[in-house]
Design brief:
Structural class: alpha+beta
Number of strands: 22
Helix content: 25-40%
Largest sheet: 10 strands, antiparallel
Radius of gyration: 55 Å
Shape: rod-shaped
Number of helices: 19
Number of domains: 3
């Protein structure tokens, strides 16, 4: 067997005749056997593997062929004889190994195995289902908006889930969007309409969020595909953030109305006579003593020692405003009493806000001066001064040891009791005390501090919020925020005081009933004025924080050392404290027996009253952000639809999917009418050929066995249209 092969090399022609195991090298018309370069084991039909050729100018100096090659003379038809004789070329040819026994691929139809198709379909559906779960998540959050978010509640679990969503969503979005966009390009080039190079390049370059932006910039693409792709990928970060921000746990204070019980402070003192007055020495005096001793502790607190709410002195707050006024926590001049008013049935949890109505005795002293007399005024003798108010004719007075005296004017008629249809002039209250705490010798008698005061009633509304401590109903911290004069018009006129209220069952005021109150005031600290001691009531005006245990000194209390406002406020605090405790010492000191208080025999059965409060609990609730909910639903619905589109296109597409892989370079192609430069980059090819259409189809439709290739010629029959057709 004799074979002949011709190899065209730039500048010359080489002819080689090869027998089974012999090689020859031909130069011009001469052929030389290459027995020295026989390569054992190389088949006769092997191809030329390597060829080394010397350039013309090298031929001139080389006398001997390199590597044992036979010189070959160049043979050009367009060269002159003189030039042809000047150059010689050398070449070395190595024949590669070819396995002639290796089986060649057989023609086969275009089809995917059932397993591959089902697996791909299931994968696409799984991605679609996961995408739909984000929509379900958003709708679920909207349904529980405003619901409680306890430790094991659905809201808390959804909130915990949302913390992982920003990690899952972009990964899922990229998996679905990238695959579906590529499937659009793969499907489009297999249709009879084909696809432009620009469309294919846009799809292949937009499989990531960064690629979606950069591809449009590289291709200078401003079309529907570019805008749609960018908007699509913008949903990835937006949907990721929406899955996190759609739900939040916020504190809430849901409220419910509750009913509380308090006591009407416009109630007469209950210990005015005989046995009751004796009982008051322990039941009233003891808590009163404790309150005076704790004045420093109570100075800035709106609650007393037993947690009762103290009313502020409205007169001291009305200097700059009216209506609701903020209650400062400045000093002990803020409050009208050392003892507050109890509020019963406070909830054991949460915050309870309410408006507490009440009243207190207000003392105004237009006269506060010093007199120089030998003794205190005798209010029981025939020379006693007249109250001078037109309604009172006598006095109830009491001496506090030998250091002070208190006198209260009494009405001329016992029938002058509190009435809603009439009024009266304010009662008079007179205070007298030795400036130095004692009278001293007659030749050097101490001056007397005197105060002539009017007593009235102030009705007040206090806005308070109480917080239960450790779920304990009996322990609450109350914050008195605002106060105002009462807007209730059903109250008595302010000139009527509790001294003008007769006891239940009495139609007239009891004569001398107020002696019990005065007796308590002067005997509350017995023997304190002996051996240089000072009555704590006087000490309270001078230094309320150290009232008990004070001693005599120069000018203890006088208009020069104590202002009128301070004297009025502290005197009213002493009176109101005793009057409040005198309603029911047990109720005002934390031992409330409502059964006993409201019994038929009780003289204060009408004192308790109900008030409505708002109880709020600090509670975490689920809050759904509606704008982010809309973004989440749109993003998840779009990616869900894209997953279904990708699944459908994967079913339609059965031709080999080589787009996006270097393997496409190995695919046969049939391109016509392509004019370009080998120096162009991929971007330049894409930009310059963006409108050129390509198809992936059968380029040999007339043959018995087809061939799938890329082509620029329109394909009437896409791959897979003819069932059973075989392809190389």
């Amino acid at each position: 067997m004799l074979c002949s092969a011709h190899y065209l090399v730039p500048g010359f022609q080489i002819s080689a005749r090869i027998t089974n195991n012999a090689y020859i090298s031909c130069m011009k018309t001469e052929c030389v056997p290459l027995s020295a370069f026989q390569i054992k084991g190389i088949p006769a039909m092997s191809l030329v593997r390597n060829m080394w050729t010397k350039k013309p100018y090298e031929m001139r100096v080389l006398k001997r062929p390199p590597y044992g090659a036979v010189p070959v003379e160049e043979n050009h038809s367009n060269r002159t004889p003189s030039s042809e004789s000047q150059f010689q070329y050398y070449t070395t040819i190595e024949i590669p190994d070819v396995d002639e026994q290796k089986p060649q691929p057989q023609p086969q139809p275009l089809r995917l195995s059932r397993f591959d198709r089902v697996t791909r379909l299931l994968w696409d559906l799984v991605l679609a289902i996961i995408a739909s779960l984000f929509t379900v998540f958003g709708i679920w959050v909207a349904c529980i908006d405003g619901k409680a978010a306890g430790p094991e509640s659905i809201g808390s679990k959804l909130f915990e889930t949302s913390q992982y969503a920003p990690t899952i969503f972009p990964v899922l979005f990229a998996a679905i969007a990238g695959s579906s966009i590529k499937s659009i390009a793969s499907w489009r080039i297999q249709t009879t309409r084909g696809a432009t190079i620009g469309l294919v390049e846009q799809c292949l370059g937009s499989q990531t969020i960064s690629g979606a932006f950069l591809t449009q910039i590289r291709l200078r693409a401003v079309n529907f595909v570019a805008i749609f792709t960018i908007l699509l990928w913008c949903l990835s970060p937006l949907g990721s953030q929406a899955s996190l921000r759609v739900i939040s746990i916020v504190p809430s204070y849901p409220g419910k109305p509750v009913e509380l019980t308090s006591f009407n402070t416009f109630t007469p003192y209950q210990y005015g006579y005989n046995q009751a007055a004796t009982q008051a020495i322990t039941s009233v005096a003891n808590p009163m003593t404790a309150s005076i001793s704790a004045a420093s502790l109570l100075s800035t607190r709106n609650q007393d020692l037993w947690g009762n709410i103290r009313f502020p002195v409205i007169e001291n707050l009305e200097k700059n405003s009216t209506g609701w006024m903020k209650v400062p926590k400045s000093d002990n001049l803020t409050y009208a009493s050392l003892v507050g008013v109890p509020v019963i049935d406070l909830p054991s949890s949460g915050n309870t806000s309410f408006t507490l109505p009440g009243s207190y005795l207000s003392i105004s002293c237009p006269v506060f001066d010093t007199i120089h007399t030998q003794n205190f005024t005798n209010f029981t003798g025939p020379d006693a001064p007249s109250p001078g108010n037109g309604d009172d004719c006598s006095w109830t007075s009491a001496w506090g040891g030998h250091q002070f005296q208190i006198a209260l004017s009494e009405p001329c008629s016992k029938s002058l009791n509190a009435s809603m249809t009439k009024t009266r002039n304010a009662r008079k209250l007179i205070w007298e005390s030795w400036d130095r705490g004692y009278a001293g010798p007659e030749y050097h008698r101490s001056p007397i501090t005197r105060a002539i005061c009017d007593i009235t009633t102030t009705y007040v509304d206090a806005n308070a919020t109480c917080e239960s401590l450790d779920d304990n109903q009996s322990a609450s911290t109350c914050n008195l925020r605002y106060a105002r004069r009462s807007m209730d018009t059903s109250h008595f006129h302010k000139n009527w005081t509790i001294f003008d209220v007769n006891l239940p069952g009495d139609h007239l005021l009891r004569k001398g009933y107020n002696n019990g109150l005065f007796e308590l005031l002067i005997t509350m600290f017995p023997h304190m004025d002996q051996n240089g001691g000072l009555q704590p009531l006087i000490g309270y005006f001078i230094d309320p924080f150290h009232a008990v245990g004070n001693f005599f000194g120069e000018n203890l209390m006088s208009p020069q050392s104590t202002t009128t406002n301070v004297f009025e406020t502290r005197l009213s605090q002493l009176f109101n404290s005793v009057l409040y405790l005198g309603i029911s010492p047990s109720a005002f000191t934390g031992s409330v027996n409502m059964t006993q208080i409201i019994s038929k025999e009780s003289t204060i059965k009408d004192t308790p009253f109900k008030l409505t409060a708002e109880n709020t609990h600090l509670q975490d609730i689920v809050r759904c952000n509606r704008p982010w909910l809309g973004v989440l639903i749109v993003s998840s619905v779009v990616i869900f639809c894209f997953a279904l589109v990708g699944a459908y296109l994967h079913i339609l597409t059965i031709a080999p999917d080589l787009l996006g892989s270097i393997s496409v370079a190995l695919l046969q192609n049939k391109t016509e009418g392509i004019v370009g430069s080998s120096t162009w980059s991929s971007d330049e090819w894409s930009k310059n050929m963006r409108d050129k259409k390509i198809w992936l189809g059968d380029v040999r439709p007339e043959a018995d066995v087809g061939c799938i290739a890329l082509t620029t010629t329109a394909q009437d029959i896409p791959p897979g249209a003819i069932k059973g057709r075989l392809y190389h």
